[in-house]
Amino acid sequence: MANILPVSDLRNYNEVLKNCQTGEPVFLTKNGRGRFVVLSIEDYERDRAERKLLTKLQEAEDAVNDGEGWLSLEELKSLMEE
Which CATH superfamily is domain 3-38 in? Predict the structure, then answer.
């Protein structure tokens, strides 16, 4: 179940951090609406790595769709020799 707390609870940030476990972010609300998310550093780094990987995969897919992503066997051999 999601940890949802009012942003005013940050006055006692140690309690907020106790609720923030790996894989379980804490959602902070202001005036009853979602405003911020507190993540563990492990989750943050994993999310950034996933986003970077997805960006690279999208670039590769775009290159293939544009016809730029394919090499002939001869082109591949010449690149491997360099």
Answer: YefM-like domain (3.40.1620.10)
